[in-house]
Amino acid sequence: MNRLSLMVEHVRKSFACEGGVIPVLQDVSLVLSEEEMLGIVGLSGCGKSTLLSIIAGLVMPDAGKVIFSMGRDEVRAPASSEWYRYVQMVVQEPFDMFSPRMTVGEFLYEPMRGRGREQVHRMVESALSSVGLDTALMDAYPHMLSGGQLQRIVIARAFLPSPKLVLYDEPTSALDVITQAQVLTLIREMRRQHPSAGIFVSHDLAVVQSVADRILVMAEGRIVEALSSSDFVHAKHPVSRMLLEAQLT
Ligand SMILES: Nc1ncnc2c1ncn2[C@@H]1O[C@H](COP(=O)(O)OP(=O)(O)O)[C@@H](O)[C@H]1O
Ligand SMILES: [Mg+2]
Fold first, then answer.
1. pTM of the full predicted structure?
2. What SS3 state is found at 236?
3. Which residues constitute the domain of residue 45?
């Protein structure tokens, strides 16, 4: 099966606000190879979520482009539900992804709409067990579950339609440390079982280092440094140094 690689070229984005426009992304370029997990680390407000929304096709850039390739073919992201199954997102607040009146089962069925009910039922049950949850939770409502359980369900759903790219936007930032470690282990395990490309964004360097081999540092809407996870101690940019020192305190 063809995997997805990604190129982001000279992307710019500004948002209008009272008193003018704020440039949020200023000439961002990156390349993601098939099955690679790329980490992006930066302080809050530097534009990480905006960049992921542009890659996911939810926000249009003012300039620049996002190019996907599969095998040797360049593919433009067609705005079809079929395409959006290929690109999945895991966000910081899993609760926000649920509607309060939707059961866990209904939530998991959503990206699989249009497929045979019995086949989907089996897939959904096995997805729940693969993230370490009891299939009895199929009938539960989101308010009955913990943040860690909800994030596991969101991860189960992200991997259900065999995505080619998964965007992780601070998926552990709202969790306690123990749950954080469990969710990171789960993400590594899910990626092993379902090879896919990924971009993992966080303000927490240690978290990014634990899942990504290559790390980009973002500051004020630009990529300011690129390092391998293991070389990060040699980072030079002041923001990279600040993120490193934040870990040691
Ligand atoms: N839809 C929007 N309208 C106006 N400003 C926005 C919008 N989305 C993001 N911003 C602003 O863009 C900046 C970067 O935000 P964001 O991409 O969420 O950063 P990060 O994820 O790194 O914390 C922030 O100053 C934020 O307030
Ligand atoms: Mg963000």
1. 0.93
2. coil
3. 4-248
